Amino acid sequence: MLVKRLISTFVPSLGFSCYSAPNTLKTGAILKQARTFSNEDVLKYSKLSYDSNPLHFDAECARNAGFKGVLVPGMLVASLFPRIIASHFPGAVYVSQTLQFKLPVYIGEEIISEVQATNIREMKNKYIAKFSTKCSQNDGLVVLDGEATAILPTLAM
After folding, report:
1. Which helix (H) or strand (E) holds 8?
2. What is the rounded distance in angstroms from the CA atom of residue 98 to the CA atom of residue 52?
3. Is residue 44 a contact partner of residue 79, using CB atoms and an 8 Å limit?
4. What InterPro entries does the database record attribute to this sequence (predicted)?
5. Which of 30, 32, 58, 104 suits 78 as a labelling partner, its CA being 20 to 30 A distant?
6. Model confidence band, residue 22 (pLDDT cutoffs 50, 70, 90)
7. Which residues does residue 34 pair with via DSSP β-bridges, in sequence order?
8. How far is Cα 137 from Cα 112, in angstroms, rounded to an integer?
9. Domains of the chain
10. Rounded mean pLDDT of 38-57?
11. DSSP for 36-52?
12. DSSP code for 56
């Protein structure tokens, strides 16, 4: 709870929610988070990742490529999945992620990210959790989906 409160203080657009039995991760549990990416977010990501694709900075270039505006890098959108897991399970180790990019995400567009526990097994006092992952627009259109696996120190949230 303290970690969620601290993160919410420093990152204003988190909007955490959890749909499961309170305080314990179970198969079927869904953890959600809303996020709107800004030009500044994309600029910071670009500096860190050295991604200089003009589709992320130049509106004319993006329109010429068939998009309606500047795009948020897909990997920046995908970064919402480990963020959700780590915010609910401090000390979690992200093991794998598959991704399918379905639709573009534009700067200023609210995206709802979601992870749903599909399988949980105990192994040596830790838990291997598999999640289905997806990001959607407000109207429910899926922009990104896949699967993730993480090692959790506990199932307590």
Report:
1. helix 2-10
2. 23
3. no
4. HotDog_dom_sf (IPR029069), MaoC-like_dom (IPR002539), UPF0336/Enoyl-CoA_hydratase (IPR050965)
5. 58
6. low
7. 112
8. 6
9. 2-152 (3.10.129.10)
10. 94
11. E--HHHHHHHHHHHT--
12. G
